[in-house]
């Protein structure tokens, strides 16, 4: 075990002391706040009056009205359509909306002219305003006053409450659960691929440089493989924890620079505001706070760490075996297919099944089978998973790690010393059956 620990130390220190590791660890967290800062700067600069985009509107029905927004102002006139197009070409107007005489039952022929392609936001804004007005006119013609319809219209908001076995009620929010499951599943998928490839590249480099032949003279191949997998995994966990701290800190600074607040700060201040005003909004904030307080963040962090490490260790053994079986990265592609397919199944299953229906049978099996459970279970965990399912999934993942390590070791101990031989699946099968 002491030799394994020495390999872990070597793999860990040799990577964290590299300039490339320090640069990636320190610069990567700057990307997200930088992107956030650019978007916030663009959002604040778009509110200037100089950036207001004027759209000329000709309505031959004398019926429509479009309300201006922070970005777009609508100017109604009776200019000739050709004159409206000319105003766009000359830069006098950002766009020109022409509404000819239309039949309310089939409103066709409405056309927007612009020097630039119209964005989805602008088209949606105009379509929704015109649609609402046409619906009101059709109701009026059928003998129903639009005021009557508006008086009966109301928004419906469903409050989601989860009941436990004791009957205790807990407010939940599907959007929050979806977001947590989405981010956790994607992070695990990315990190397994990222650090698994690092294992494969490291093994190929040591094999091609013949350093491995010196190492195996003093340490068993299995111990070397295990130490390499754990050491690189520790590097990944260290980098991830640093990223979480730096991204959170720098993002708070960037948001504060623009005079804004992080969502949790806004929720805290609004929850502690005077109860005299904005009763409905404070009720929504209180519900949000109850949703957040109802999430077991300790369980979430512990579970994420377990599946992050468990999934990495499970697949890391296969990546190490692939690296030991080939002499160059280009030769590894043929053996990567059976390794990546289960990961891709878990990735696709996260979106198609788990996040949409975390309690379905297929979501259950995706979170139980070791090949997909690191991604599948993290997609379900925020929705609440029975303890026995979580325990079963963890137990099978641990068992899967030992099984994958045992299988990979049989390939590793032979392949690591084989040079210049074209390895095939038949060759790998022969190595697996070998008892030496």
UniProtKB/TrEMBL annotation:
<keyword id="KW-0812">Transmembrane</keyword>
<feature type="transmembrane region" description="Helical">
    <location>
        <begin position="387"/>
        <end position="409"/>
    </location>
</feature>
<feature type="transmembrane region" description="Helical">
    <location>
        <begin position="176"/>
        <end position="194"/>
    </location>
</feature>
<feature type="transmembrane region" description="Helical">
    <location>
        <begin position="362"/>
        <end position="381"/>
    </location>
</feature>
<feature type="transmembrane region" description="Helical">
    <location>
        <begin position="240"/>
        <end position="260"/>
    </location>
</feature>
<feature type="transmembrane region" description="Helical">
    <location>
        <begin position="214"/>
        <end position="234"/>
    </location>
</feature>
<feature type="transmembrane region" description="Helical">
    <location>
        <begin position="21"/>
        <end position="43"/>
    </location>
</feature>
<dbReference type="Pfam" id="PF12698">
    <property type="entry name" value="ABC2_membrane_3"/>
</dbReference>
<keyword id="KW-0472">Membrane</keyword>
<feature type="transmembrane region" description="Helical">
    <location>
        <begin position="335"/>
        <end position="355"/>
    </location>
</feature>
<feature type="transmembrane region" description="Helical">
    <location>
        <begin position="297"/>
        <end position="315"/>
    </location>
</feature>
<dbReference type="InterPro" id="IPR013525">
    <property type="entry name" value="ABC2_TM"/>
</dbReference>
<keyword id="KW-1133">Transmembrane helix</keyword>
<protein>
    <submittedName>
        <fullName>ABC transporter permease</fullName>
    </submittedName>
</protein>
<feature type="domain" description="ABC-2 type transporter transmembrane">
    <location>
        <begin position="19"/>
        <end position="409"/>
    </location>
</feature>
